[in-house]
Amino acid sequence: MAHAQVALVAAGFRRYSTYRQATVAGAFTNTVFGFLRCYILLSVAATAGGSVAGYDGPQLVSYVWIGQGVLAVVNAWVMLDLAERVRTGDVVADLLRPIDPLWTYLCTDLGRSGFAMLTRFVGPVLVGALAFGLYVPANPLTYLLAPLSILFAVVVGFACRYLIGLSAFWTLDIRGTSMLWVFLSGFAGGLYFPLAILPEWLKTTLWVATPFPALMQAPLDVLVERGGVPNMLLVCASQATWCAVTLFACKRVQARAMRKLVLQGG
Amino acid sequence: MAESPFGVYARIVRAQVRSQVQYRASFLLEVFGSMATNALDIASVFVLFSVAGGLGGFSGTEVMLMAALSAGAFATADMVVGNVDKLREYVRSGLFDSLLLRPLSSLAQLAALTFALRRSGRALQGMVFYVVALCVADIHWTVGRVLCAVFAPISGTVFFISLFVAGASVAFWWIESGEIANAFTYGGRDFTAYPNNMYGGWFRDFFTLGIGFGFVAYFPALALLGKSDPLGLPDWLLWFSPVVAVIAACLASLLWRVGVRHYRSTGS
Amino acid sequence: MIISARGLRKDFTVHRKVGRFRRERTVVSAVDGVDLTVERGEMVGYIGPNGAGKSTTLKMLTGVLSPSGGEVQVCGLEPVAKRTTLAKRIGVVFGQRSQLWWDLPLGESFSLLRHIYRVPETDHTARLKQCTELLALDEFIHTPVRQLSLGQRMRGELTAALLHGPEVLFLDEPTIGLDVLSKQAVRTFLSELDTRGDTTVVLTTHDLADIEKLCRRLVVIDHGKVVHDGTVDELHSRYRSRRTIVADLELPWPDGLTLPGAVVTAVEAEGRRVTLTLDGTAAGEVVAALAKAVPLRDLSVQEPDIEDVIARLYRDDN
After folding, report:
1. pLDDT, position C316
2. How many CB atoms lie within 10 A of CB C292?
3. How far is C-alpha B161 from the chain's CA centre?
């Protein structure tokens, strides 16, 4: 990576490291939800004969707690300030810089997620590990694939939010779109329950045709080594594909937005 | 002609609603969006139910009664005071001053000013769902149970309102409290949607009895169904929801009042 | 007396970061023992540098902030304890905190306020009519507040604060950021209010022209303490501020020329403009002496600049 990119990532990291109180508050909330979801899934598993949709006890614990951590790292619920900058016209300043704003925003978001990884990921996961005991991956390959998978999740989550931000060039008010996004990314991303619970057709459609599972379900499945090495590699490959597809879409849409800006003067 | 205090608040709410519906498309999308979210919350309960064929040893209609009570109470409270956590911004910017300068209760003004009509669909949906759940559940009606069926959603709503207000009040001391209140408001909604015996350890004790979430849906549902708590709490406790709601309301309003005294009015 | 404060104090606890993790608590007194009495019908200017405690005092008088110490009564009521009762008897305009509904037309805000303050319809109509005439609200009363200019909004805010016929009007920086015309409109309106004499007005401002045009009495606060309470003239005599004569001359000012009763403080425009500061001698004598010494083209006598006095006062204090 070039100098500028490294500096941007570092800046993103530093900026979020100043929100110390909000970080503690967020980690606390994630922890409460961790307990809540964990007890519910464990109770369901107990009634259903020890496992839910092929996840056994420790795997469910990992699914819930690491899920709470990944949620904060991907940060899919919090919109980028891009839309606000489009609304106010400040975006012109972004477009005039020598670096493509897509990379500026991406690097900053990577810095943010790096800070979240050290705080809001580690915090709840540690509590979960102490209170319930997490699934310990057996295969050394998992320790290589898991960070990669989380990185992919961050990038896909970023690209989708960037697209929503760009839509402000055409609609100005993105509250409706954001709401739809929060709704879908939670439900179809695997936040409320493992997607494997869903009927086969719906599950397959979500995995193949939407980027949502790449946000949460994918890294979680890698971390609990679901389906063994072949499935884990497949999951990572599909995430990589979604990274490419969504980033490419960002580039294209941004180019059109710029044309619109040039033609109409904002 | 003297107008009741309630009439004045109703006027503020109407003015608020008029300014909200100016953005019509956004407004409609949010009405349907929030209804979809509500439906999904309840659907999540049933997805898990279908996996196990029961939750915490309760049957489908019984779980539905609890989930419906929780959803109805939460959605109504959310419509009325769900946005009082905007207090944070009011305190940060010093805008709270202008509420204190009017001859009305600051809390009621804030609730009226942040009233979210777009959540009305959800509240209505929750209440309809509750009535359906009452009809299909296996309840042997007595006078006590009729009263319980009427007072349970009211108590639950008052309880959640108190929780929202208490959570917002934290901003008087701690502006950067961020999403910490969500752990108890939205967390409380999720907690109360399931039979409380599914939880374990100190977490269950603290949330069910310590904070009192058990009295929102789980205990009244047990009282209606004529069941005892599988974990052995005395049966008379199940009827205490209105008392708990009143206590919660008193505590929340006390916290608010102490908070207003503590308000520092910065930002100018 | 309608406002009385004795030993009024407000302390804030400030956390300061010391090193990486430790924080230090210090108590800062924003208002530190203010005594203030205002009689019914007075118009008082309350001034001081940024952070002197002006707004904090006003907030304690209006019931927004609870005092850390001292006693305070407004309209015979304790502001915080009787907040809602007091609110009906006072009007407040805090420059940055709007009383108006952002998305609604100005007129609708007014009728909402009528219900909030329970003002009888006839009183409301009469007062609104009066304000509409004096402040020319007609042009924008049907415009949503968010579309108003700052000057128009301030005129709206003033009206909003007066519709319930308050006994005391508190104004925090009522002219800040306004264009010249709006400033003038606001000042004219306030002096009209003063002439009628049934409303007591306390105003804070940065713009000393407001004070000179409006207030006979001036209270200056610095570091939370009252450093001057009296008329503008008293302030001048206390700080011995001087009047000046600026003269335009036909010929350049002769080097080294002095006049009795005045000191030359500036010579400009190639010696053709001279500024003389009087040392208390009557201006007439100095002008006569000046006319004798050099041919005059034009001449003006300037009153002492209040801004200078205040600046000196703040400096002395530091």
Report:
1. 63
2. 8
3. 5
Question: So where are chain A's domains?
Answer: 3-264
Please state, in angstroms and rounded to a whole number, the distance separating the CA atoms of residues C119 and B137: 53
Continuous H helices in chain C: 54-61, 83-87, 106-116, 121-135, 150-162, 180-196, 208-214, 232-238, 283-293, 306-317
Joined together, the tokens standing for residue B29 give: 């999308």
Q: Which long-range contacts (CB under 8 A, 24 or more apart) does C287-294 make?
A: C287/C245, C289/C259, C289/C260, C289/C261, C290/C245, C290/C247, C290/C259, C293/C254, C293/C257, C293/C259, C294/C247, C294/C249, C294/C250, C294/C251, C294/C253, C294/C254, C294/C257
The domains of chain B are located at 5-262
pLDDT, tens digit, 9 for 90 and up, residues A43-89: 999 888 888 888 988 999 999 999 999 999 998 778 888 888 887 77
ipTM of the complex: 0.88
What is the number of other CB atoms lying within 10 angstroms of the CB of residue C236? 18
Compute the distance between CA of residue C166 and CA of residue C200 in angstroms, rounded to an integer: 9
Is A130 part of the contact surface with chain B (CB cutoff 8 Å)? no
Task: DSSP letter for A224, please.
Answer: T
Judged by CB atoms closer than 8 Å, whether chains meet at C118 and B264 is answered as: no
d(CA B36, nearest CA chain C) in Å: 28
Question: Which chains are within 8 Å of C by 3+ CB pairs?
Answer: B
pLDDT of residue A191: 87
The structure tokens 């329970």 sit at C118
Interior/surface letters A36-69, b for 16+ CB within 10 angstroms, e for the rest: bbbbbbbbbbebeeeebbebebebbbbbbbbbbb
Subunits close to B (at least 3 CB pairs below 8 A): A, C
Assign A257 a pLDDT band (cuts: 50, 70, 90).
confident
